[in-house]
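Students often ask why inverse folding is considered easier than folding. One informal answer: many sequences map to the same fold, so there is more than one right answer. In these notes we will look at a single instance of the problem. The structure comes first.
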């Protein structure tokens, strides 16, 4: 469970730094157009911090962190979130600097969402198992 708290804290720091970076980097380059940098802050805070806090709640309530697949889920999900946020930042920096984002990287960048999806599938498989266990233990019908 501690790793969920640490991950949420790290994502909070990344999100806050990303917000400041967006504001200062665009200001330093006199950039006023649309850029992917504008969503790095929110993606970090939602996909990173908020989701890890939500996973922590499920770990506290249902003990899903005891599942043998939980570590795989944790690393897959957070790797996908980092991949996504990293490519958003890279793309945004390219936009601010007036450089083209390589078309070949668009496919690679999109893989972050696929990795996050794999993480969510693992999470829901684990959640289903522990939710059924909780229902049985507490005599709650489905």
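Output (designed amino acids):
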């Amino acid at each position: 469970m501690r790793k969920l708290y640490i991950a949420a804290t790290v994502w909070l720091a990344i999100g806050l730094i990303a917000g400041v970076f967006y504001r200062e980097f665009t200001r330093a380059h006199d950039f006023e157009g649309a850029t992917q940098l504008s969503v790095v802050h929110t993606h970090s805070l939602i996909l990173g911090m908020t989701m890890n806090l939500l996973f922590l709640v499920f770990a506290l309530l249902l003990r899903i962190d005891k599942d043998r697949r939980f570590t795989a889920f944790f690393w897959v999900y957070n790797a996908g979130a980092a991949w996504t946020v990293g490519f958003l930042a890279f793309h945004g920096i390219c936009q601010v600097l007036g450089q083209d984002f390589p078309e070949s990287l668009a496919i690679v960048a999109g893989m972050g969402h696929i990795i996050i999806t794999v993480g969510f599938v693992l999470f829901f498989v684990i959640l289903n198992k522990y939710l059924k266990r909780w229902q049985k233990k507490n005599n709650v019908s489905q």
